[in-house]
Amino acid sequence: MANPLIEARVLFENQEARTLHADGLTNALAGRFDDAQELFRAAQEALSVDPLTLDRTVQAARITRDSGFTWLRAAIAAPENDTPAVLAKARDTLDSSRHVTKESLTNPPPASYERPSGLSTRRARRETWAEHGETLSLLGRLGTAHAVLLPSDSSKESPSTAAYVNNSPHYYQLAHNALIAGNNGYYRVSNALAAARDARINQHRPDSAEWAARAAVGLAWTAMRDPQHLVAAARTTANRARDLRNPQAAQASVLARP
C-alpha cells in the first residue's frame, strides 16, 4: 500500500514521528481506529522531545488534524447512538489543529536549525498556509458528513456544531483562499472537489460546476508548480469525479470516502 502521508516540501520533519504518523493513517484507512489513535499519540510523544520550532509545531498540527479526521471515519462506522459524540470529538480535534496553524501564521515560532537556511521564511510560511488550508477543508468535510449522517438534527444543533454543519461552503472557501497562498497542489485540488461534492449534495449544480473548474485549475497549477503531488492530485480527481454525477452519488460517497 502506498504511503498515505502527504510529504512536506519545506518544513523539517522528525522522522520517527513521521513514521508513526504514516502508520496511524494506514490503520485509520483500514478501519483500525483505536490503533490509529494510539499511533498518533506515540507520534506526538516522539515529537515532544524536539525544540519548539515552527517545523515541530506544524508537524504536531498535522498529526492532530489526522487524529481528528480519524474520529470522523470512526463516527461513520459507529453505532447510530454513538455518532454525535464521536463527531464532536472530530470537531474539537480538528479545531485544535486549526488554532495551532492559525497561531503559527500570526506569531510563528523560530525555524528549525535542521532546515537549510535557503528554505526559510517565505517558503515555510507558504507551507504553513497549505497546512492551515487543509485543516479548514477537513472542517468543511466534517460539516458535509455531519449533515449526511444526522440530517434530522440540523435544526437542533448547538451553536458550536451549527457553526460548521451549516457553514461547510464557508469553510471550503476559507480553505481555498488559504491554499492559494500555500504550496500544496494536492490539498488545493482535494478541497475544490470536496466543495463541489457538498454543492452537488445540496443540489446547487452551478456552484458544483464552479468548484469542479477550480479543481481543474488546481490540477494544472500542480503540474507546473508542485509536481511531487501531481500523481496524488490526479488520482483524487479521477476518484472523486464520479461522485459528482448526481446528488445521490455525491451523498453516498461521503460514507465511503469522507
Can you walk me through this structure?
It is a single chain. This protein is mainly alpha-helical and 258 residues long. The chain has 2 domains: 1-176, Serine Threonine Protein Phosphatase 5, Tetratricopeptide repeat (Alpha Horseshoe), CATH 1.25.40; 184-258, no CATH class. It is 73% helix and 0% strand. It is built from 11 helices and no strands. The protein has helices at residues 15-29, 33-47, 54-77, 83-106, 121-149, 159-165, 168-181, 185-201, 205-225, 230-241, 247-256. It is globular, with a radius of gyration of 18 Å. The model has no long low-confidence stretch (mean pLDDT 91).
Number of domain modules: 2
The CATH architecture of the largest domain would be: Alpha Horseshoe
The largest sheet, given as strand count, sense and whether it forms a barrel, is: none
Tally of DSSP β-strands? 0
Tally of helical segments = 11
Give the overall average pLDDT.
91
Give the radius of gyration.
Answer: 18 Å
Shape: globular
N-end to C-end Cα span? 19 Å
CATH class of the largest domain: Mainly Alpha
Q: Which range does the strand content fall in?
A: under 5%
